[in-house]
Amino acid sequence: MNKRNKNIKDIVNPNQLLSRFNPRGFGALKFLLEKEFKQILRNKFLIRVIIFLPLIALSLLPMVANFEIKNNNLAVIDNDHSPSSSLFIRKIVSSGHFHLVSVRQNYNDALNDIEQDRADVILEIPAFFEKDLMTTYSAQVNVTANAVNAVKGALGSGYLMQIIHNFSNDLRSRFMAGNSKIQTPAFEIVPRYDFNPYLEYKFSMIPAIIMMILGMISGFLPALNIVGEKEKGTIEQMNVTPVGRFPVILSKLIPYWIIGFIVLTICFIVVWIIYDMVSVGGYLEIYLFATVFVLAFSGLGLIISNYANTIQQAMYLMFFFVINFIFLSGLYTPISSTPEWVQTMSLFSPLRYMIEALRSIYLKGSHFGDLWTKFAALVGFAVFFNLWAILSYRKKA
Amino acid sequence: MNSTNKNEHTHPTPTNGQWKTFGSFVQKEFYHITRDQTTLALLLILPVLLMILFGFSINTEVKNSQIAIYDPSNDVATRGIIEKIKASDYFTVVRMLNNPAEIEKQFLKDDLKMVVIFSDHFYENMQRTGKAQIELLTDGTDPNSAMTVVSYASNIIGLYQQDLFKIQQIPFEITPSVKLMYNPELKGPYFFVPGILGMILMIICSMMTSISIAREKEFGTMEVLLVSPFKPMYIILSKTIPYFVISLVNLATMLLLSVFMLKVPIAGSLFWLVTFSILFIFLSLSLGLLVSSIANSQLQALLFSGMVLVIPVVMLSGMIFPIENMPAFFQWFSKLIPATWYITGVKKIMIKGLGFTSILPELGVLISMTILLIGISWKTFKYHLE
Amino acid sequence: MENVIEVNNLTKKFGSFTAVDHISFEVKQGEIFGFLGANGAGKTTAMRMLCGLLPSTSGKGLVAGYDINTQSEQVKRNIGYMSQKFALYEDLKVWENIRLYGGIYGVPEPQIVSKTNDLLKRLGFENERNTLVNSLPLGWKQKLAFSVAIFHEPKIVFLDEPTGGVDPITRRKFWELIYEATDRGITVFVTTHYMDEAEYCDRVSMMVDGHIEALDTPKNLKQMFHADTMNEVFQKLARKAQRSDS
Fold it and tell me: Which residues of chain C are within 8 Å of residue A21 when distances are taken between CB atoms?
């Protein structure tokens, strides 16, 4: 009993404490943040992911994720064997769009090349090609394209038609030169590609890859962190304390928000070193967009963690959303060419706005004024997701 | 159980009694899967979802692309060309520009695909000097989109030229007759359906099997099974059978969706398509077994099968990204991925409608890979379990 | 002495299943109150309701003078809680865990520092100050978790099977910590299924199928059931149970 009296003097009256300090407020936030940062810095796996994911993804993906349609493999059947027909073939090969892989004697052999994926396009020059040209002033050729890959089929046959058209023009100017009586009207079509004159695919892929990395890291990590605490039971320990849900949620958001900036910076450095690419527009504007984008994705991660009970469930759910967002982001195909309902759905993909914004700023030098609608959309997502996350965070089971 | 107990060590192959036990093990696995309704739903819905996503969001058609026009000439020829462009479904003219300085700013807002720029005195130059020019300025930050838009625009302008020439009887005209094989309407799904088949079967068979076996290891129930008198290998096999059945269901679902929803018909023999797919399912299951013999926890199995099996399939099998564009090392590497061979084979049978003989190389490679994998996973299992 | 916990007809239903069925009892300040029952009897559910982790279906409960349904946040300020699962952060050091919970409960920083030193000295953990919690033995972790749960000097501390998985000697040492806490005026509410621990409690309630079947001092209970040990008391009561083990 003596001992009891002695120790009672040390007791801090909790009510007295409360008058000085409100644990529901932000006093506790400092301690929670301290804890999160200590845990993150001690987590070797996490630090490796933060450093190596951008490095590996940005050095390998642009090599692999390449939809470029450059090399159309061509099979030729020349039934004419005339100077004109061989000139015609040389003209096609020298265009740079085609790679001559085989010269066949009959159509079936050439078709077999397509069946076995050796060739993409067959050009068949009929017998009497030259004779027809010289006598009737017109000739026909047959083009067969493998259209399993629709883009490749369309572009391959399209190129071939352009070359044929130019070849006709050449013949005309050669044989008609000096003949001023037959004046042919003519104009040329000149394609020019802005911002990316050689149409290198990696230019458009790199901003998209950066945003996918950023979205994954800022979405998956907080979700896995909270669900991990659920599985370990530490979140329940937190829930019996008087700390409010707002500081708890903030203590999970802020560290991953900072990690997002670090990851983004690592990405830009990697891209600069490997591809010698820097932003055409301002980095300040990019970081401004990224601020909101990361908040939106972390908010989504928090919502998922509020509903998932195991890490596996959280992974599946997050995977589901990320896949949907990627498909609806216009990464693979221009949004304008999808069916209307897909276009409507794509309005709900935050990734869409961010990829469009980053491509515009990074590759074209767009300014905030050009992109404010996208910024507003991202702010909307961030507010919506985080409000939902706070409201769905239950301190009670 | 008693009868199997006696025979266990003397008979390497299952006796009648053992088949019965095997049956009850398989039954137990089915109970597991049907009771975990979230996972079951995932297994059955994931293929449908991916089919819809790929089928509709990956579309290569150009429709209603927004364009702007700068026309300083404003004569009979340019107006004729603009009329042709406006009349097509491909383009929507959203702006007529009056000042060349405006041109460069157009792409900064990211909704415009192309600016059509006519040269000065277009009609006059077209008739006399031949120096008339139409510049098709596109946004190169999305290369394929840019190329496709240019090619559509060139064709439309070409039509105008043809009309013009018809009136004027132009000599030396070569007319190509174009045939687009296998996919005359140029639909995107023709390219993706075989890839999705390969990816889904790989995910369901390898990833799910390895996770479910790893779960038993993690919870310690595997040890209980292993001390039973039944041969460990059959226990493992019994776990794969439900996934085999689910894969068949998925295969049927996906083929139905592709035929009726995406309108990608099965051009070749259904029998060989299914046989070839079952071979691939066997191969994926043996891959799953191999992963589960190495992984000890669900997370390990998930990460391992995700990193080593699913990501390479998505990235390197030619499912989305054409293999011929990859650097030589990746092209070589893609040949080691079973899905690459499966997808090529499915393209041949299903899309191109070729006969059985055309897939002999793919069949040969997949059969040898399966034998090799079953051999390896059998060995590692013996090593790990017995 | 005043009552720090008053429970009246508290009930919790999960669908058609009644986990806790109209229980009523009081706990006095400074008491060690044992909350016993077989697995699935409803102990943990009842305790989670008292801690404000789970809303009750009906009935009333006052903890430290606050209503558990309407004033759960005030309840939380006045209690400590140590769960079945060991719930300190494994990847934080010993002093960091203490500091975190001290900070969350609003103990001023200078006090956190001085009290941490006292605490480590009292536990004999001075050398473990910078040790990561995951490398401590389970018995030490439990002692630390308990000390952290009462670091902010709550009126009541709830312990949910605090000594699971350790040997009787380690359990005995843990109970010395509990006595020290009651010496300082903290009320201890503890669930356990170790009957030797029941003997250490001031009063014990026995829960069977969601009801409280008996509530008295261990001595009186043994007399009432003509038993020599609490284990026998428990066996006699548990025989009535309808619900199977978990």
Answer: 106, 108
